[in-house]
Amino acid sequence: MILSHKKISDKDLESASIIWDFLTQKDNLKKADLIFVLCSHDIRIAKFASDLYKNGYANRILFSGGLNFFTKNIFPDSEADSFANFAIKEGIPSKDIIIENKSTNTGENIQFSKSLLNATNVETNSIIAIQKPSMTLRVRLAFDKQWSDIQFIVAAPNYSLLDSPHSHINLFMIINEIVGDLQRIITYPKLGFQSEIFIPESVVYAFHYLVSREYNLHLIR
Q: What sequence ranges are listed for the domain Rhodanese (predicted)?
């Protein structure tokens, strides 16, 4: 685990909660052709995807993700391979698992996975896109821009900001992560990576406050 170098104040936590709530936007679950997992540092996402498969929400799971700033020191293999191995241990047949292990960001998750599905002739008209709760808005906006011709819903395990730390990442790093995620929602529409969305003033204020408090490890420089 990467340890915090500072005490998280009550105002830090209040500001982070405002951002977390804004970034978390999930749909009601319904059956689809494919469970599409945008992998991360949180193996709980693989468990959630495995449970959806077992409950009949889809007959295939695609795990997408290489390694990034957070995961290069966590997993011995790519995020996708690590998640797939977890799913197989959960009883998911390997024949129903597709692995895309080169992507390093949300845009590449979508682009590389679309190409892989086309190359392997896997017909997919509807998707359950799964990520961490605080990444669900980014996933939705990226799909709106980059894969708008497919039916999709966005889903995530039901846990809060305070429940988001795990054995490899603590609350200090989680706050750094969501500050960086919000920055990308602000800047990425101008680059054509995702759709634009109105950001409330309270969320913008919380972002600038946390940046001033040096929660800046995940910011784009």
A: 21-79
- The 10s digit of each residue's pLDDT in 91-105 is 999 999 999 999 988
Q: Hey, what are 193's tokens? A: 């990576």
SS (H, E, C) 125-193: CEEEEECCHHHHHHHHHHHHHHCCCCEEEEECCCCCCCCCCECCECHHHHHHHHHHHHHHHHHHHHHCC
82 and 131 both lie in a single domain: yes
Q: Is the dihedral of CA 14, 159, 57, 118 positive or negative?
A: positive
Domain shared by 143 and 109, yes or no: yes
Q: Given this model, what pLDDT does residue 71 score?
A: 81
Residues 51, 70 within the same domain: yes
Domain with 134, as residue range(s), is 34-155
What's the pTM value of the predicted model, to 2 decimals? 0.94
Tokens of residue 76, six digits: 């011995």
pLDDT at position 3 over 60: no
17-51, pLDDT tens digit by residue? 999 999 999 999 999 999 999 999 999 999 999 99
Co-location of 38 and 147 in the same domain? yes
With respect to residue 103, please indicate whether it lies within any of the assigned structural domains.
yes
Domain check: are 125 and 187 in the same one?
Answer: no
pLDDT at 4 over 60: no
- Residues 57 and 143 occupy one common structural domain: yes
